[in-house]
Design a protein that fits this description.
- With 282 residues, the protein is an alpha+beta fold.
- It contains 5 helices and 13 strands.
- Helix 4 runs antiparallel to helix 5.
- It is elongated, with a radius of gyration of 32 Å.
């Protein structure tokens, strides 16, 4: 007797096959992408890609190549995306070196004429050849002092010496006194910093440190607001707080900075303005 089976068995087999295939493709045999377009990366992958482009730009100093690499992500406004990533990294107390590289990359994208000096390549240590103490052979003759005689085939032992490191640029110094900004009265009190080189050009990627009392140090970099200036950076101040500012790795601290009182607002409450400080390189 022949048993007639309905189409449900066929449908059940198709469904089971699809489920098994899905499990195999996602766990046992996942798809591996090789040499794909950077624009197809995940958001985390794009962030890692931007960091690699920024670090390469810091090492090579080639703005054209950096812009070409960044263009592979096919983003509408790559400069804003890079700036947002750098600001997010600093807000999360991330890697300062990577944030600085991203700031310089953003400046290179927004200002194609900008050029930086690549990082110096590591050079091997110089050596001085100092003769090794030769071995003493034979028996000294009577009446003569025992002295060293060189052994044939004796080798010289190299002694490493330190290679001088390249000197850092002159530290940035404050030009004049801090400028008080009360008109127009800002919505928030900002500690505005502008950094210029010896020729008066704005300098992006300069480290700025702000500390308050005995609290920790907050770090940010110039160049994250290219619409203002490539050498511009700011920090929101709180009323009645005292801040200390330092520009660059070896700059002198500027203490006793606070939001200036600019009178009263429409509700007769104290209104505070902003401070603008300009730093130049001698």
């Amino acid at each position: 007797m022949t048993e007639k089976r309905g189409s449900w068995y066929l449908l059940t087999g198709i469904v089971l096959g699809l489920i098994i295939g899905l499990i195999l493709s996602t766990t046992v045999l996942p798809v591996r992408y090789i040499n794909t377009d950077p624009s197809t990366l995940s958001e985390a992958g794009k962030e890692a890609y931007r960091i690699m482009v920024a670090q390469a730009y810091l090492a090579e100093g080639d703005g054209g190549r950096a812009r070409a690499r960044l263009a592979l992500l096919k983003e509408t406004n790559p400069s804003e995306v890079v700036i947002a990533q750098a600001q997010s990294m600093l807000a999360e107390s991330g890697n300062d070196a990577r944030a600085r590289a991203l700031a310089l990359l953003a400046a290179a994208v927004s200002e194609p004429s900008l050029s930086i000096t690549p990082l110096p390549m590591l050079t091997p240590l110089a050596v001085d050849l100092i003769p090794a103490t030769p071995a003493i052979t034979g028996t000294p003759a009577a009446g003569t002092s025992q002295g060293p005689t060189s052994t044939p085939g004796a080798t010289n032992t190299p002694r490493p010496t330190m290679t001088p490191q390249p000197t850092l640029g002159s530290p940035f110094v404050m030009s004049g006194e801090p400028e008080t900004i009360c008109d127009p009265l800002p919505a928030v009190s900002l500690l505005q910093v502008i950094v210029l080189d010896s020729s008066g050009q704005a300098v992006p990627g300069v480290r700025v440190e702000v500390s308050q009392g005995t609290g920790g140090i907050e770090t940010f970099f110039t160049g994250l607001y290219p619409e203002v200036s490539l050498g511009y950076a700011d920090y929101q101040m709180l009323p009645d707080a005292i801040y200390t500012l330092r520009i660059g790795e070896s700059g002198q601290p500027v203490p006793n900075l606070s939001a200036p009182l600019c009178g009263n607002d429409a509700n007769n409450k104290p209104a505070y303005g902003s401070l603008r400080l300009i730093f130049t390189q001698p």
